[in-house]
Amino acid sequence: MAHSAQLNILEQNCPIQVEHDRKRRQFTVKLNGCHDRAVLLYEYVGKRIVDLQHTEVPDAYRGRGIAKHLAKAALDFVVEENLKAHLTCWYIQKYVKENPLPQYLERLQP
Length: 110
Prior knowledge:
Layout: H1 2-5, E1 19-21, E2 26-31, E3 36-46, E4 49-56, H2 66-80, E5 84-87, H3 90-98, H4 102-105
């Protein structure tokens, strides 16, 4: 019974809300209340350079576009803060290839 009371944000057709925790250097999406979450981790590797390191979505939520929201939020952060980005995370690399926006491409570090 307790499980049926917990509604998944995706099942409610609620918009996916990405939160940015600058102190922990991560973007998150809360799933199923606050028990599960998807996360994108980054680190500063220079004064104005961030490394987008890792994106993780729990298995039960994969294939629903959650990682795309995390990737977009992280890249928009890079643009808004006038940073450069190194893409260690394979998913972010794929996202940029599928969404080759000039404002993203000009921010990439080799």
